[in-house]
Amino acid sequence: MPVDTPIEQRLAAVEAAVAELQRRLPPTRESWLELVVGSFKDEPAFEEVLALGRAFRESDRPQASESS
Question: What domain of life is recorded for the organism (predicted)?
Fold first, then answer.
């Protein structure tokens, strides 16, 4: 598509292409989130990742200034 084509026409072409791709995809039975939820249950390495992430977020918080 030429670059000088109006944006509305370009957008319509992209939307039509996306719609066609979506029609070609097989329907999914479960959402990706349902497939992932619980997959790390009772995994020690994941618990460590959570603890390290929590520690990082807490270290990044502004410290409360002490007033005299």
Answer: Bacteria
